[in-house]
Amino acid sequence: MKGIQVRQAQRKHGYYSACEIGRFYADLGDRENAFHWLDIAYREHDYQLVVRLKNDFRFDSIRADPRFAELVRKVGLPQ
Q1: C-alpha 28: how far from its chain's center?
Q2: In total, how many domains does the chain have?
Q3: 41 contacts 72 by C-beta, under 8 angstroms
Q4: DSSP for 27-61?
Q5: Distance from first CA to last CA of the chain, Å, rounded?
Q6: What is the domain extent for residue 54?
């Protein structure tokens, strides 16, 4: 959790990837916060969604959630 707090604080003073924060939450199994931050990443056009969404193992805990498939679709990645 400390890592998440540090990154959120960094966002107040500059840029830190919302996708990365979403990855931390997904890795912790916190689906709601993971999707909250991934939605922010989508709205911010965070390039890391394209790079990491389909192949980062830290998203494994949320892949079965229908919101994940919807996010993949919105980002434009192959299903």
Answers
A1: 12
A2: 1
A3: no
A4: HHT-HHHHHHHHHHHHHTT-THHHHHTTT-GGGGG
A5: 31
A6: 2-75
Separation of CA 49 from chain center = 7
How far is residue 34's CA from residue 47's CA, in Å, rounded to a whole number? 17
User: CA nearest 49: which of 58, 38, 59, 36?
Assistant: 38
Residue 46: CB atoms within 10 A of its CB come to: 22
**15, 40 Cβ separation under 8 angstroms:** no
CA 44 to chain centre: 12
Per-residue confidence in pLDDT tens, the chain, 79 aa: 777 887 787 788 888 899 999 999 999 999 999 999 999 999 999 999 999 999 999 999 999 999 999 999 999 988 7
Question: At 76, which amino acid appears?
Answer: G
Q: For 63, which DSSP code?
A: T
